[in-house]
Design goal:
The complex is a heterodimer of chains A (213) and B (488).
Chain A (H helix, E strand, L loop, with lengths): L1 H13 L3 H14 L3 H21 L5 H18 L14 E6 L7 H12 L3 E4 L6 H11 L3 E5 L7 H12 L7 E5 L5 H6 L4 E2 L3 H11 L2
Parallel strand pairs in A: 1-2, 1-3, 3-4, 4-5
Chain B lengths: L3 E2 L12 H17 L2 E3 L2 H10 L2 E3 L4 E3 L2 H10 L4 E3 L8 E3 L3 E6 L5 E3 L6 E3 L2 H13 L3 E4 L13 H12 L3 E4 L5 H15 L2 H6 L3 E6 L5 E2 L1 H12 L4 E4 L3 E2 L7 H22 L7 E3 L2 E4 L4 E2 L4 H16 L4 E3 L11 H16 L4 E5 L1 E2 L4 E2 L1 H19 L5 H4 L1 H7 L9 H10 L11 H6 L5 H15 L7 H21 L1
Parallel strand pairs in B: 2-13, 7-10, 7-20, 8-22, 10-11, 11-12, 12-14, 15-17, 16-19, 19-20
Antiparallel strand pairs in B: 1-7, 2-4, 3-4, 5-6, 8-9, 17-18, 21-22
Helix pairs in contact in B: 1-9, 2-9, 3-9, 4-5, 5-6, 5-18, 6-8, 6-18, 8-9, 10-11, 11-12, 12-17
Classes of the chains: A alpha/beta (213), B alpha/beta (488).
The complex binds cobalamin.
């Protein structure tokens, strides 16, 4: 029976079936099965395979995103049942958003989805994000990484503003800064003293993993 | 000649028949009436409210009834003229000619001297304008790259001033995101023509404003568009649904989303400034599900572009389109074949303006070499679209009798009269013998284009603006810098 439920969670993720995942998660709670095992071995295993397939070019973005959704919705059911003191081993906490004045959010959303699918706990602030909101969220959730996206050459300076504000709030050495977006480059990342640049979502995951090693 | 004659155009290739266009139109009206559009600007929302839309001010949502779309369509002019600093370069958009436009607002360039890829600066922009000014086939100049060495809030003004100073052609742009910027840009353009009234009569600039797919009008750009319309500056809305991501995966569905954005923009402008000059456009494309990229060089992009020109004709509006787009990272094979493919449909579809010349890497990278190559690709495509003219003069039966079997036509008056028009004459393509090509240095097309770019830059100097106009433009920019920087 326990084997069975783990397989059902994993299969639901692998079949991009949000409903079945939620159904299986509810059953975990009902039957008193260990929620931690359900998360790490059932859902986690499934998502890991999906991530690998995506990276290998075997599956498409909507499949990855729906799998991540299945994970997220099941987590919402399972997390409250975790015994006190246990926490899920997220790879790290990432706060991500498009900087103020910029509404380009497609690239940023994809990066957020890839990070979620790869096991990061992601706080997506959306687009046109005020500097103060970046800083406040980093502080509130004790983020390990802050990711900023800019697609306009005129909004790139907002990244500097956020870095300065992090400095001022005494948070800069607690959080790694990663930047991206079409006009952004590794040279720009260096110029504004960010920790890293990534050119696409797959690179973003690798960079995030490396930064937290 | 800067325009390409399209009256004898073979083509008018039809992707959609009347029935399909009707279906798209009706689907669009239904979306506008039932789902509506988000309009972030309170000013624009107020205009729609007053015009009779059902407006939810809290959600910024406007439901637009079909009769208002119809009303807006009857208010807009069917034909417009895009003027230029040099009147000889004025462009009459009446469906009889196609004009080419450079691609614009890129962020990077490959340095002509060092070959290094880097962020663009004001000097690069001036250089691109000079080359475009020289290339006869180009009718409209869109500031090709951004002056990133200038303070961010006033960059659009530096870009406009540099463009007007370095080309005598019409300048179209896309980066205005606030009504304040628009007001300063109107001032700058007015200086070049001798006042705001004159600018209304002879708009030497026009502006493009992006909508946010699906079905959203951004605040700043929309208010800027209203500002331009009131000053008589032609505007258009540019929807960019990406099939599969911000539009339905099906091309027809994404066409409906884009058309709903265009038509709602038309309603806003025609209610704010009745009779304001407008164009119709779309840059819908598909979203690459594997590489997570917006596709600029795909066949779907070509199809969607062609359909947009058919919609423009359906609505009797002057049309402009992207085209000649590519995902390649440098001038060369991928750039040229993708540009040839994505340029073909817009040229055959009979647009008034076809853009996209000179940028690479999904409209972000400028190289002088590719600009020169693109003008040649466009010329060849236009020649194809012309087809073959058949009449007494071109059949030339009398001449064939006269020469008879065995002679030649080289020294005939008929040859002399037609040889420049009947055949396309490449400036770049190498048609020498192998030996001659080798002797001349075995140059690749890109190398030949680079040589040409350097020659143009050495020899070509567009007529400068008058000294006091230059000075006043500088003052406006400084004033704007103070004000716009304070606002940020
Ligand atoms: C689609 C698009 C739009 C859409 C955006 C829809 C949306 N919801 O996001 C719309 C039509 C709304 C739009 C609006 C505008 N746009 Co626009 N747009 C584009 C376009 C064509 C593609 C962007 C895109 O979605 N790419 C696909 C995604 C997947 O790629 P990506 O964003 O680069 O993201 C990837 C990587 O960069 C990286 N990444 C991204 N973010 C991050 C963050 C982190 C932390 C990391 C690690 C990695 C990372 O990973 C992503 C996934 O692989 C670009 C051209 C281009 N090629 O970039 C122009 C472009 C960015 N836009 C441009 C302009 C000018 C505008 C407008 C100002 C126009 C106007 N006047 O209305 C407005 C912006 C208004 C505003 N206030 O922001 C210009 C910018 C010019 C400049 N010099 O700055 C561009 C370059 C086009 C051009 N050449 O003119 N635009």
């Amino acid at each position: 029976m326990p084997e069975n439920i783990l397989n059902r969670l994993k299969d639901a993720v692998l079949k991009y079936d949000v409903e079945s995942a939620v159904e299986a998660a509810n059953e975990v709670i009902k039957t008193g099965f260990d929620p931690l095992e359900a998360i790490e071995q059932g859902l986690g295993d499934g998502l890991r395979i999906v991530g690998e397939k995506f990276e290998a070019g075997e599956i498409f973005l909507p499949e990855l995103m729906i799998a991540a959704q299945a994970m997220k919705q099941s987590l919402a059911i399972l997390k409250p049942a975790l015994t006190e003191g246990t926490s899920i081993k997220a790879l790290g906490r990432v706060v991500i958003g498009t900087v103020e004045g910029d509404i380009h959010d497609i690239g940023k959303t994809i990066v957020a989805a890839m990070l979620t699918a790869s096991g990061f706990e992601v706080y997506d602030l959306g687009c046109d994000t005020p500097t103060s909101k970046f800083v406040d969220t980093v502080k509130d959730v004790e983020a390990d990484i802050i990711g900023m996206s800019a697609l306009l050459t005129t909004t790139m300076p907002k990244m500097t503003e956020v870095v300065n504000a992090l400095n001022k709030a005494g948070l800069r050495d607690k959080v790694k800064v990663v930047v991206g977006g079409a006009p952004v480059s590794a040279a720009w990342a260096k110029e504004i003293k960010a920790d890293a640049y990534a050119e696409d979502a797959i690179a973003a995951v690798n960079v995030a993993k490396k930064l937290l090693q | 000649m800067i325009g390409f004659d399209t009256t004898s155009q073979l083509s008018s290739c039809h992707i959609l028949d009347k029935e399909a266009l009707d279906a798209i139109h009706h689907a669009t009206l239904e979306v506008l009436e039932k789902t509506g559009v988000i309009v972030e600007s309170d000013e624009a929302l107020g205009i729609l409210d007053e015009a009779g839309c059902t407006v939810d001010h809290r959600r910024h949502l406007a439901l637009i009834p079909p009769h208002l779309v119809k009303e807006a369509l009857t208010r807009k002019p069917k034909r417009i003229t895009l003027n230029a600093r040099k009147p000889k370069n004025d462009l009459k958009l009446d469906g009889s000619q196609m004009f080419l436009c450079t691609d614009g607002s890129g962020t990077h360039t490959i340095d002509l001297e060092t070959g290094e890829r880097r962020s663009s600066i004001k000097e690069d922009l001036a250089m691109s304008a000079k080359i475009a000014d020289h290339i006869e086939a180009i009718g409209v100049y869109w500031p090709m790259i951004t002056s990133q060495d200038m303070p961010a809030p006033a960059r659009v003004l530096h870009d406009l001033e540099t463009s007007i100073a370095n080309t005598e052609k019409h300048v179209m742009f896309e980066t205005t995101t606030t009504p304040d910027e628009a007001r300063f840009q109107i001032e700058i353009a007015a200086l070049a023509v001798g006042g705001k009234e004159e600018l209304k009569r002879r708009p030497i600039i026009s502006s493009c404003h992006c909508t946010i797919a699906p079905l959203k009008h951004d605040k700043g750009p929309t208010e800027a568009a209203i500002e331009f319309s009131r000053a008589g500056v032609p505007v258009y809305f540019l929807p960019m649904p990406q099939a599969g991501a911000t539009g339905p995966i099906t091309l027809a569905g994404s066409t409906v989303v884009g058309n709903a954005e265009s038509l709602s923009g038309l309603v806003i402008i025609q209610m704010a400034a009745p009779g304001a000059p407008m164009l119709y456009s779309s840059e819908a494309s598909n979203f690459d599900m594997k590489n997570l990229r917006w596709c600029a060089g795909s066949p779907e992009c070509g199809l969607l572009t062609a359909v947009s020109s058919e919609l423009a004709r359906y609505y009797e509006m002057p049309s402009t389109s992207a085209g000649f787009s590519t995902d390649a990272k440098m001038p060369g094979a991928q750039a040229c074949y993708e540009k040839a493919v994505t340029g073909t449909l817009p040229v055959f579809a009979g647009y008034d303006i076809v853009g996209g010349l000179g940028l690479l890497d999904a409209c972000t990278l400028f190289t002088p070499e590719q600009l020169i190559i693109d003008a040649e690709i466009a010329g060849m495509l236009h020649q194809l679209a012309q087809g073959i003219e058949v009449n007494e003069e071109t059949l030339a039966v009398d001449l064939i009798h006269k020469i008879g079997p065995g002679g030649n036509y080289l020294t005939e008056k008929h040859t002399l009269e037609h040889m420049r028009k009947e055949h396309f004459i490449p400036e770049l393509a190498d048609r020498h013998s192998y030996e001659a090509w080798k002797k001349a240095g075995s140059k690749t097309t890109v190398e030949a284009a680079r040589k040409k770019a350097k020659e143009i830059l050495k020899e070509h100097q567009p007529a400068p603006l008058e000294k006091d106009v230059q000075k006043e433009m500088g003052e406006i920019i400084r004033k704007a810098e103070r004000q716009l920087i304070r606002n940020t």
